[in-house]
Amino acid sequence: MSLALGTAARPRLSAGAMEALAGWALMLPATIAFLAMLLLPTLATVLLAFTDYELGAAAPAWIGLANFADMLTDRGLRTSARNTLAYVGIVAPASVLGGLGLALLVEAGARGRAFFRAVFFLPVVSLSVAMASAWQYLLHPTIGPLNAELRALGLPTPFWLSSSDTVLLSLAAIGIWENIGFTMVLFMAGLTAIPRELYAAAAVDGARGAWDRFRLVTWPLLGPTTLFVVVISLVRALRVFDTVAVLTQGGPNKASEVLLWTMYQEGFTYLRLGYSAAITLVFLVVVLALMALQTRVLDRRVHYG
Amino acid sequence: MTPRGSLLPGAIRLLVLALLGLVFLSPYLWMAAASLKPLDEIFRASLALWPENFAGVENYGKVLARVPVAQYLWNGVIVCGGILFFQLLFAVPAGYALAKLRFPGRDIAFGAVMLGLLVPPHVPALPLYVAFSEIGLLNSYAALIAPFAISVFAIFLFRQFFRALPDELLHAARLDGMGEWSIVWRVILPNAWPAATAFGIFSVVAHWNDLFWPLIVVQGHARATPALGVLQFRSEEAGDDFGAMMAAAVLMTLPLVLAFLLAQRRFVEGIATTGLKG
User: Fold this and answer.
1) Which CATH class is domain A69-300?
2) A 206-245 → B contacts, CB under 8 A
3) Which of A73, A129, B24, B228 is the right S-S partner for B224, CB 3.0 to 4.6 Å?
């Protein structure tokens, strides 16, 4: 035993030890950055959520669950949660179904495939702040082209972004426009992974027409893709911030107040960091719950190899 | 008929696609049109897309004269380039170590990466803001770049990618007397381009468009990114001047959109493959 150790250590380190050293050395920069920029700040957010820390105020005090108790009675926050839920409830399903529809439609033929894929994908790579400005002009109540068109048709002309009745719907429409190209390319990747022989096999088994092919082959085989797209669409919709920050700032009358905007305002406008951290924590828990749901469903039901 | 078949006959498919495409493109068309129109024409709210009188020079001139557009774009290049540089610098070696080397603590490290994937970037923002403010680093490139220098997603992506590389490649390099560090940069990285390109596109699109973090750490024009620049021009200069505002929007949107149009396939593939986890 001691002999073996001695021979290994004297000439140089064993191959295994060398490999371990190399592994640690290569991991070191990433580990330091991970600790400094991700792990410690995230833990700090968790701790902050239980304090009354305000930037520029006296030393923070530990207040336990008081922030969370405040959230339950905070009417602004309740509005914000309700708006976020409504926004996600519109944008996520529409992005999933719309993305699937577009993917099927674009992939159904060879002509114009690359062109239309680019058209629908364009909003994904466009500067969202700039495009929000374009939407503001498009939806402007008096000089906007949309209302000009409605006026020409003799239809009512809503105050899209400046009325509390329509603001959330307008933001949701922009959100769908921004997300649908993304879900579309994910579905396209899923579609190309379906073996073509299966369609031939389905035809032999008596599948007639496009609807049968979709129902019997495409839809079941897209199962894992669909589940993934649903979850990522929910998370992306939950993160809505840019359009609200640019176009409405939560207004009018808090009708477009959403979770991240509230968190941003509490933390960086009112500098109530403790409360803002508590909101962030709720946001994180919702995201984690969605991910957990995905993993569980994936483990249980969707097994296509 | 193709095996996948079409739900609709070809002509109808193209018609539906064209109509939907027009709806999707309308914000771009009206934005570009308004950026060329004089203000009185915009306020008349006519349905004509094409301007009667061209005011492009005035509109774009106004933007260029009032806000440092070149500075915004340059800041965007520095910030996106800096972020990507550090992401690759940290993630390529880590991804290689996790994929190909055996060392104590590897499973814990990989577990940390998987956990990190679940945390949205908004979560560590508050303490990071306090830290940057304490050390006086607000309004700096460092504050814009540092929080994103580490991408657990990049580590995950490279680890998956490197696992598929043949071990013989590494054995040959080690027999040639190469150390692990030079293996990473001279053997692994040249083989990592497909993953690196995909990740690079994903990263640049995400950070070029990001508003949340720049809005938190930057004030004023000197370090404003393109997203912030549009916002500043809107609130400080444009007011109701939609022509100038649309000109600003066009100028800031154009670089990434042009890049996309030039390398369309790579963009779609890059976002689709990385999107599968991002």
Assistant:
1) mainly alpha
2) 210-211, 213-214, 218, 228, 232, 235, 239, 241-242, 245
3) B228
